[in-house]
Structure formats: structure tokens, C-alpha cells
Amino acid sequence: MRHDDCLFCKIIAGELPSAKVYEDEHVFAFMDISQVTTGHTLVIPKIHTKNIYETPSHVAGELFTRVPKIAQAIKDVFNPVGLNILNNNEILAGQSVFHFHLHLIPRYGEDDGFDSKWVTRNDQFSLEKLQQMAENISGALK
């Protein structure tokens, strides 16, 4: 399934150029035009799905099954010291193209151009509070 106004659907269809890394019947991977770090690659399902919330499990399964192979190829070629796998869902989280995609961002050092800062709040959540949150999420699983 394809959306005519989707940038990534147009790339999959060959209507827009891309530097293709990998393609099979379910997945398409290509170089991110922004190249946050050298080798920054996007991995997308060929079926249009907006974000993780709307992605059927079989589509996610096909996508995630290929990620280790693509990540290993990036490691073999660019020899990074690490790799971030990033997915943004909705505008507040930084999603700018509304076709589900994973960023594979090779890491070369602290000053390589990518920064992800975590603010930990472990002193604000008791084990009881964490357990209640876990039970709420478990109860919402369908």
C-alpha cells in the first residue's frame, strides 16, 4: 500500500532519487540525505504505515529482521565505535516524514555530530510506582 503524497513511498517507487543500500520485497534501506554521521541509513517498510502505533506486527517483524544485517554492513564499511537505532513518532518526538522508519546512526566519538541526552529521574520513582506503571501498561496490551 502506498500514499501518493509520501516522500518515502515515492523513493520506493523510484519517482525520487535515493542512494539505495538494500531492497527486498518488504524493506527498503537508503542513505539519509542529512548524514548526521557518515553512514547514516534509513530502513523503511515498503508498506506505508505512519508510525510505530499504526504499524502491523508482521510489517515490523519484516523490518526489524533485516536491521542487524544492514547494521553489520555499516559496521564493516565504516568501522564505527557504536551505532544508535532511532525512531521518532509524531511531531513532538521529531518525526518529519510520516512513513515509519528507523535511523541507523553510526557513532564515531562524542563530537561526531549526534547527541542524545537523557535526564534520569530514578530518584523520583519508587519500585511500587514502577510496578504500578508496568501493571497499567500490561493491562493495556491487546
UniProtKB/TrEMBL annotation:
This is Histidine triad (HIT) family protein. Gene3D superfamilies: HIT-like. It holds the Pfam family HIT. InterPro entries: HINT, Histidine_triad_CS, Histidine_triad_HIT, HIT-like, HIT-like_sf. Residues 7-114 form the HIT domain. One of its GO terms (biological process) is nucleotide metabolic process. The active site is at residue 101. GO terms for molecular function: catalytic activity. A motif (Histidine triad motif) lies at residues 99-103. PROSITE patterns: HIT_1, HIT_2. It comes from Pseudogracilibacillus auburnensis.
